[in-house]
Amino acid sequence: MKNETIAVIGWVTLVQGVLGAGGRMFGDQPWGLLHKWWDIPTAGYIALAIVGVAIAAWGEVTKKRAKA
After folding, report:
1. What are phi and psi of 27, to 5 degrees?
2. How buried is residue 1: exposed, middle or buried, by Cβ count under 10 Å (0-12/13-18/19+)?
């Protein structure tokens, strides 16, 4: 259960980072939910996406190890 939660947090972080960066680059404002609470620069959204990839990968790997 813990590994699945970590993976979900990673995926949500990744999606929010991609939506924010994509909205800043291809639209007039960030997409997603985070821009409603904080004003995050484009580099911050890219960093969120990178952190999200790392957390999601870690969660998925530990989830597979737990099943093995």
Report:
1. -135, -170
2. exposed
> What is the greatest pairwise CA distance in the chain?
46
| CA 68 – CA 64 distance, rounded (Å) | 6
Buried b (16+ CB within 10 A) or exposed e, 13-51: bbbbbbbbbbbbeeeeebbbebbeeeebeeebbbebbee
The single-letter DSSP state of residue 41 is -
- What the block records as the tokens of 15 is 């999606």
pTM of the model: 0.82
pLDDT in tens, 1-59: 777 888 899 999 999 999 998 988 888 888 888 778 888 898 999 999 999 999 999 98
